[in-house]
Design brief:
Shape of chain A: globular
Oligomer: homodimer
Structural class of chain A: alpha/beta
CATH architecture of the largest domain in chain A: 3-Layer(aba) Sandwich
CATH class of the largest domain in chain A: Alpha Beta
InterPro entries (chains A, B): AcetylCoA_hyd_C, AcetylCoA_hyd_C_sf, ActCoA_hydro, ActCoA_hydro_N, NagB/RpiA_transferase-like
Largest sheet of chain A: 10 strands, mixed
Helix content of chain A: 25-40%
Number of strands of chain A: 27
Pfam families (chains A, B): AcetylCoA_hyd_C, AcetylCoA_hydro
Keywords (chains A, B): Transferase
Strand content of chain A: 15-25%
GO molecular function, one term (chains A, B): acetyl-CoA hydrolase activity
Family (chains A, B): Belongs to the acetyl-CoA hydrolase/transferase family.
Distance between the termini of chain A: 59 Å
Amino acid sequence: MRDRITGDPPRLSATEAAREVGDDDTLLVSGFGSVGYPKVVPLALAESDRDRSLTVVSGGSVGPEIDDALVEAGALERRFPYQARATSQAAINDGRVAFHDRNISTLGDEVLYGDLADGDVAIIEALAVGPDWLIPTTSIGQTPAFVENADRLIVEVNRTVPRDVRAFHDVYRTGRPPNREPIPLRDPGGRIGTDRVTFAPESLVGVVESDRRDQPYEFRDPTADDRAIADALRTFLEAEVERSPLFRDSLRIQFGVGSLGNALMGALGEADLGDRELIYFGEVIQDGLLDLLDDGDLATASATSLALSAEGQDRLFEHVDRYAEDIVLRPADLSNSPTLIDRFGVVAVNSALEVDLFGHVNSTHVNGTRVLNGVGGSGDFNRNAALTVLALPATAADGDISRIVPMTPHVDHTEHDIDVVVTEQGVADLRGASPRETATALIENCAHPAYRDDLHEYLERGERRGGHIPHDIETALDWHVDR
Amino acid sequence: MRDRITGDPPRLSATEAAREVGDDDTLLVSGFGSVGYPKVVPLALAESDRDRSLTVVSGGSVGPEIDDALVEAGALERRFPYQARATSQAAINDGRVAFHDRNISTLGDEVLYGDLADGDVAIIEALAVGPDWLIPTTSIGQTPAFVENADRLIVEVNRTVPRDVRAFHDVYRTGRPPNREPIPLRDPGGRIGTDRVTFAPESLVGVVESDRRDQPYEFRDPTADDRAIADALRTFLEAEVERSPLFRDSLRIQFGVGSLGNALMGALGEADLGDRELIYFGEVIQDGLLDLLDDGDLATASATSLALSAEGQDRLFEHVDRYAEDIVLRPADLSNSPTLIDRFGVVAVNSALEVDLFGHVNSTHVNGTRVLNGVGGSGDFNRNAALTVLALPATAADGDISRIVPMTPHVDHTEHDIDVVVTEQGVADLRGASPRETATALIENCAHPAYRDDLHEYLERGERRGGHIPHDIETALDWHVDR
């Protein structure tokens, strides 16, 4: 294989590459889980003195070179679909940047068919590039769809990422409707593709060298609540794998991104699963999974991103060969594929801001108005999993806010998609429950004791009003007014 | 093939069969789109003088023999997941019957794995039955999963349905996670199964003869609003098939159940689709589709139910052979399969009660409290379609209520799932729009003129509050208080 450019395309400096970007262009950038995104070209775009109104589409979250620098430069007009930086969030909530939030699994298609945005330039971080191929770095995300859709392609070759990281990659394309073929993946750790993404040679505008590293994750130490949630989840799962025929031989599981998710992954190592294999089928590889692999508690892990701490990166990069036996990175439309999540019978474990008495979940908008990151892949997993668990602390703001509320002012996941709620207080199994039963279980098993009386009072008020979902519409959002 | 019972299982009268049902049993009944459900055994259950607390699970809506008679007899304690009768709705909204609403596509799995309910007795309407097989009548729904899960099976053989209706059936089973195979269906009209459902011979308790016909649908004549919505949808689709590469050769489409859906189907015959084939991939076959087939405007239709008017039934039953070339009935987990909807690039067209300024849709709960039918398959199609259209009149109650509201008090489909809204006022294309842009487009293109000023005022109030979704939480639900 060639992994150096021998003739065309031209090598460009970041500044030269930035000149190839039109002032109002739509940029499709690699990156997922804040890793594997382009860095030096976005910085050069931010530093140029042109008056730009860019649209930036990423597969998932990216780093400060995009969501801080471009925002601060006033160069970002529109942003899809997920971002996790305070700077971009402030700009979106001020109305300075237009934002549109989408589910991860279908984003590539929506770009590819011009439904969401038509890509002018794809800017992709790669380990290596050839005339019609590139090898992604630490995430794959929507890179295959993005290079297929964009008119022009700029590749940032990042030499700080070990070349053998390619051993994780399994890039497979599903073809286009109406002749899209079934995905031939037979097990979560299987491989059906190659290590590279192909593109039309004529689209390649230039290659830029980059030496900027991904900004590593920082996980906080697990709190007492994290540990209590993890214990409750572990106890529930130990009983569930005994009960359900779906888990006779193995438990396939996904956890959401972040410190709580990482802590939950860690706790799974202590679970008594009998002889069952533990398999991860999710979006991101976090440090907790490396621990499980090191301890021999995890058979295989499939994701689209290596979202690790600095320590985790070092550990992985030093032993790529060993980890590559058990870790696979796929494009995000496969890591989050509704049909793969269904076929493998995955248990989804995700967190949220709040859940209401009838099982509706707000995972994105504080008080229904101020967006945080975006829905990400939580919708893909919550909807299609064999079993969907919502794991969250019962309160926020040091106990001043209950995360169990009468009505959420924003809904990302409906009552139809949530099976079980776990807080540090306990577990509410909502399967087959009527709304009244759901409310009672959430109040008694999951809400913090300090809020139970108020929640019971709301439920009684609703019951006097009547209806299948006994809301008292007049006071339903009182907990969110002037919060 | 045998289509008469020759020895065991015993033939039972309906009353004898009802005696085989325990007082607190969970019944899994055939039926979808109010057809193909068991009739004489449920009536006998309602007429018996036992004190029953039954749970009834159906694949979709069923008729008065279940959702009126069992409710009126006080024999129904719990009901999953979709019902469309005034009697059952009243009982659910009064809290007399516990109800839990699920998406159609995964209901069979949820029953099969004991997540929702464990079936004691499956009561299935059939054209014919043998020692380990039965042939469904006018719907397939969740019958395969139900007979697999239930301990005991009672079959109602209905002689009023022509035997050759079996020519429509294509029963295929997907296997169980984690070894569930990809669905090998390659085109919407293809066939991969057989005409029959198999079961464990020892589960068959008895066979009951039935001569009760399905209660046929009654469609109202299209209103002026229906026609205006259909015109707006047709114009939009004519442009969209030209624009999108997904529709180069064909348009695959689904319509929701009901008079509006039926009227929209009809209008599609007048659309100028160039040389493209028109293909239906949805839940139910309604009369409008027969018209399109008769006129040569429709190539093929795939569904799980023949939800026809009396005239439509007569037309179909007289020419089963001719229609069976183009119509296929599948189990509901295939008719509504997320991956098939995705792979075929289906355009979903569904209605709802109301939509809010930011694209969230309430399709089930009047004022957030009183349930109508249930979410049905609308979630399966809205989430997984290549293009999702919400089609509804701008107002209800003779114009007294706007269906475009500041905030819906119940959410079945989120902003992430709705691409385009069509009312008789016009079309709002929400793809790639920020919440502010969504609100403006809905007000100006879709809301009834009488409500535009009030909606603008709400939006301005929200914008003064700020945030990505500019709600004014304090007044967000004012339109729903004491309605």
